[in-house]
Amino acid sequence: MADPSPVRGPVVDADGISKRFGATVALSDARISVAPGESHALVGRNGAGKSTLVSILTGLQQPDTGTLRFNGEPAPAPGDTEAWRSKVACVYQRSTIIPALTVAENLFLDRQSAGALRPISWKQLRRRATELLAEYGVDVDPTARAEELTVEQRQFVEIARALSFGARFIILDEPTAKLDARGIEKLFDKLRELQRQGVAFLFISHHLQEVYELCTTVTVYRDARHIVTAPVADLGQHALVEAMTGESTGGTEPSWSVRGRARTTGDTLLDVVGLGLAGAYQDVTLSARAGEVVGLAGAAASGNVQLGETLAGLHRPQTGAITVAGRPVRTGRVPAALAAGIGFVPEDRHIQGLVPQRSVAENATLTVTGRLGPYGTVLPSRTRVFAQRMITDLDIKTPGPATPVSALSGGNQQKVVIARALATEPHVLVAIRPTNGVDIKSKESLLGTVREVADAGKTALIVSDELDDLRVCDRVVAMFHGRVVAEFTDGWSDEQLVAAMEGMAGPTDPKERNDSHH
Amino acid sequence: MTPTTEVRPHSAPANATPPGRRFDLARYRDLSLVPVLLVLGVIGFAVSPAFLTSDNLLGVGQQATELSLLVLAEALILIAGRMDLSLESTIGVAPVIAVWLVLPDHGARFNGLGLLASWTAIPLCLTVGALIGAINGFLILKLRLNGFIVTLGALTLLRGLQVAISQGQSIVNLPGSFTYLGRTGWLGVPAAIWICALLFAAGGCALAWLRHGRALYAIGGNAEAARAAGIRVDRITWTVLILGSLLAAFAGILYTGHYGSISADQGNGWIFQVFAATVIGGVSLNGGRGTLFGALTGVLTLQLVVNVMTLAGVPPLWNQFLNGAIIIVALIISRFASGEKQE
């Protein structure tokens, strides 16, 4: 129910908030203020300090300096869960719904009955749940099990639960990341409806289009600092993206250069036609020639990572075909992709890339064990020789081929992953976020390696949302919500590319995403 | 990485029919073994006229009590998302320690320490059980050790302790309080069956109607979410581990009383049966799912199969083979009856 009492100042007001984790400054003199019933957006690139702010606003962490007030009153004591819950609630990307329990029970978890020894009256619990859901107009059956709900229905349940604690300020952390266009529409309708009831939102999203659609005020953070707070209407797309990216950081010139290459020669090595994977991307057509590095840009839910993984055989697409060097590739099978000449650098080397306890040599030759000895044997001598060549070629800093790969630095570990991908001498190298979590020096040398692959007459595809990764590309294709929305050749500016990745007007109109689900 | 977007058919389950009236198969998945039990009954009746006599059925019931108490304990622990392998050793070692402390230190085949009065045997046995659970809980929850290995270690350690204390022999001179419960009958039915039924009913009610009972499902289903909802995850898990070992110690008292002695291998190898019964009864090994009623039907199924086979004259040498086969067949049945993958 809307709180009819007169406005008592901002629902939340944080000022001068600083937070350090060891040597890392996560937030430095940051501030934010959200008025009652306001829909406030918080945007910024990775590492801007958004998540730290959320954990401070929800009481999970204490700021080193600064003041935090809710409705003009000082924030509750740390650890007083009840008090924090009545002030602020957060709907995280990861669901806090328990799938096996009913909606009603999820809503009243740990307060199903008045006392610990009081038996739960299921009838009454269902009634209370029905009332609560009706109060906020959530159209969900309280007796349904939570796992039967759609993603947005689960979010509605989480929001209703948050409101039932008395909070009138809700933080939504990337709520649309796992939703399809229809779900996003439903969520936004619900949020607007709640706003009319006086609920304030802090909306965190990577999709700027959504910020313009939903929010009235926007705050931009960059490098742990508050940059600007302004009404959305006063801040154009360009100004917003500029505030997020800041001035182009002048660094050292990389050893490789993209400009001035003849790119129109070369045969087409990779050809993707009409590829579609339900829930990830639709109707993607793409081709890449020998000698070319193609970037596949896109933010978290854009489907670019899934597309890269599909090429490597990790997913089976429902529609479309992949052709490598003129030969069709059987989709959905990693061995087939390897045999067709697709090398793959996975997104997360810790999860999909490396076997940490095993040696550099073993890891680097994982894809080519069939060639290391006759009759299915793997000869240690050949493995060593092969690995030694890789270590020299890619300049991997390791005491020797027998060193466990976990002992290497992040950059060198990543080189081992690339070595593994290149061991099969692929026609096409698909690299997902190849510089994920490595230092600046290794970054350059890794990208240089990818560049060399293309220069040697192969093709490389870099799937990433990091602008630095994409700068090495001859051509960048931007994806948004599962569709290719723009293509850039030489000379794109950071703003243009970020705008396209965030789903705002690029060369192609991204509006069509709204009618892609029927 | 797997595709992050789960695509569900949008036939919204919401408000299709008024709540409560819809026939929901999911609600009855814990009953999936009931038809199996009925079929076993029919087979038993066809195989031997001795099957459907109260003597036979009560005998099966009494034999099932000790195993079912372990199943009750394991079901609670599994629902909360944990495992305890050491229950099968607790059922032996707890009575042995209690008896050792109580029995006089001379004059019999087995000499105890004679430290305490003989009426303290049962409280002592239960205390030992609770202590074992508390130590397991400390290792798992405070030191954050792997629960599977901790309880596997405890299984071996406690079995060894029992052999060392009892010098590898069966103990036959028992305090009277021990033998009473295992041998008495109330209203013509062995007391053990009454107690067991009562404990299952109490446990089932607690899981269905008490906040702390529901908390077990929440913890097993998604511990992070449970913590976010204000549930004291560690404290409740610890309590459940203690309760589980307490039940195992109590099962030890019933077993000892029933057979009139503590054998050196009391409970040895039971943990396989316990897990099998719990899982075919619909309790998930991943936590968060299952009911005590389901677990009970699991035990009864296993026990009835053995009984029917014995009556049918199947050579006892085949028992082990058939037991294993039954477990796998029952697992397949409950997999398809409930429609849920058992991962």
Task: Give an overview in words.
The complex is a heterodimer of chains A (518) and B (343). Chain A has helices spanning 50-57, 81-87, 103-107, 122-135, 151-164, 181-196, 208-214, 237-245, 304-311, 334-340, 349-353, 360-364, 380-394, 410-422, 440-455, 467-470, 494-501, and strands at 12-21, 24-34, 39-43, 65-70, 73-74, 89-91, 169-173, 200-204, 217-222, 225-231, 268-277, 281-289, 293-297, 319-324, 327-329, 342-345, 428-432, 459-464, 475-480, 483-488. Chain A is of the alpha/beta class and 518 residues long. Chain A folds into 3 domains: 12-97 and 165-244, Rossmann fold; 99-148, no CATH class; 268-353 and 426-515, Rossmann fold. In chain A, the strands form 4 sheets. A 6-stranded mixed beta sheet of chain A has the order 6-7-8-3-9-10, sandwiched between helices. Chain A has a 6-stranded mixed beta sheet with strand order 16-17-18-13-19-20, with helices on both faces. A 4-stranded antiparallel beta sheet of chain A has the order 2-1-4-5, covered by helices on one side. Mean pLDDT of chain A is 80; it is low at 1-6, 248-253 and 506-518. With 343 residues, chain B is mostly helical. In chain B, strand 1 and strand 2 (189-190) form a beta hairpin. The longest helix of chain B is centred in the C-terminal third of the chain and has 27 residues, at 233-259. Chain B is globular, with a radius of gyration of 21 Å. In chain B, 45% of the residues are buried.
Number of domains of chain B: 1
Return the average pLDDT of chain B rounded to an integer.
Answer: 82
**How much β-strand is present in the residues of chain B?**
under 5%
Number of strands of chain A: 20
CATH topology of chain B: ABC transporter involved in vitamin B12 uptake, BtuC
Taking the sheet with the most strands of chain A, its summary is: 6 strands, mixed
Q: Helicity range of the residues of chain A?
A: 25-40%
Number of helices of chain B: 13
What is the count of β-strands of chain B? 2
Shape of chain B: globular
Strand content of chain A: 15-25%
CATH topology annotation of the largest domain in chain A = Rossmann fold
